[in-house]
Design a protein that fits this description.
binds FE2/S2 (inorganic) cluster, phosphoprotein, mainly beta, iron, 2Fe-2S, 7% helix, 41% strand, 2 helices, iron-sulfur
Amino acid sequence: PPPPPLPPSSSSPPPGSYFIGTKEDVVKARRVTRLLNGCRDVLVLYHQGQLHAMDKRCYHAGGELQFGDIEEFNGRLCMVCPWHKYKITLAEGEGLYQAVENPTIRPHRTQWRSKGVKQRIHKVTEVNGDVYVTLNDSAEAIESDNYQTERFRSVQQPR
Ligand code: FES
């Protein structure tokens, strides 16, 4: 019988992807920001053994997520925006919030809910010790797209 097909080669970066750096450097830096394709500000981060990539500017008002903390909420790892503490899941870009179950009952009991995907997440690939990002070019608008403008590239952390 013919030999089984080879698994997809991991020796070349995905077509259309962007080189970010060596994995060693990204792991050491933990957070790396890059302007990709001349128009997309992306944050690549390393956390608990995993690489993630997302739009750098928060979907709420353009906060710089490279300065946020990563915490777990309801079992999901989230970026916490440093500006107004919105929570964004690393894996999907969903906005999480705590909803009050029944406002008439005190003390209020809350549960975590999702607002849906708000932050554009990009794909990270490792090839031979190098890290590449493939931009998520889905045509569907995602709220974080609003902050991918020249105007916001120069907006800094409020003091
Ligand atoms: Fe991120 Fe407001 S800008 S929470």
